[in-house]
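Fold in tokens:
===
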Amino acid sequence: MRTPRVAVIIVSYNALPILQKCLPTVVRTTWPNLEIVFADNNSTDGSSEWIAGQFPGIRIIRHPENWLFSRGNNEAIREVTADYIVLLNNDVAVPEYWLRPLVSFAERNPSFAALQPKILQFSQRDHFEYAGACGGYLDRLGYPLARGRIFDHTEQDAGQYDMPVRIDWASGAAMLLRRSALDSIGLLDETFGLHMEEIDLCWRLRRSGHEIGVVPESEVYHIGGATLPRENERKLYYNIRNSLLMLYKNLPPGHFSAVLLLRIILDHSVALAWLLGGKWRRTRAVIRGYVDANRKRSNYSQPTEATALPSYRGLILLEYLLMGRRRFSDLPDKRLSLNHVTAPPDSTS
């Protein structure tokens, strides 16, 4: 039986200490048909030179400038030949067998185009990590949440989310993608640059009839904040701008207008509270995000029908702030429209 070829792509910019901590674990991955690709966004800290000396089997692609996450990955994807592409952050460490459950699940379930492992904190490995935790969803207004993480609250992993499930989005920190699906719908949106690009990609995959899932049998360990800390105003700007662009791209005009009205009210209420609390830079980031999203909307066309809508039909920001719902298990089941995955037994291991 043919073993699928997998290409693991790691985009990095001036992150040598992190690479020295995490990359050796990736090299120890036990998959017989594997290529590891290091996509260097024009680092000046000797990252590529260190890798070439320590791990000559890793393929190095040197970009002429810092193309950020979206283009940095896209250019590398275009240069590799593989059945599956794995996007892996440079600050993710992995156990040896992390890849096998993902590929095995994908082989048994051809309707799934994107999968993520369980993502745990690097330094506290019994807690979920912010970037994707155990599988992501969107609420009615496009706010992301995940099994094991709602906004800044992350849960302890006690096996409560160990069932594979269909999700809205898989985390770009560690995401397996079916190459044939990418060939049919396209790659990451390079306008996004950083943040939300993987959620947009997953939404486009779902709109084209593919499914997204999480396979908790596989787990990885994410340091987090290696590119931008969560409280960084630039990160907030990208999240606001790209969230609005994502909604515009994936919702029909009437639906988008209704969502946008509520988003304006909620986002600017929070921005006002930040302003009154002296956090004016965060307020400015929200305003800039709205202004730039409006300017860039003309680059996109909108769908005519509402398909693959966000699966969590509640309003997570209000539930979090007003009802104190901090854990995914606190959310009403009736508001979640996706079900557990039932997959055929694994015959490949």
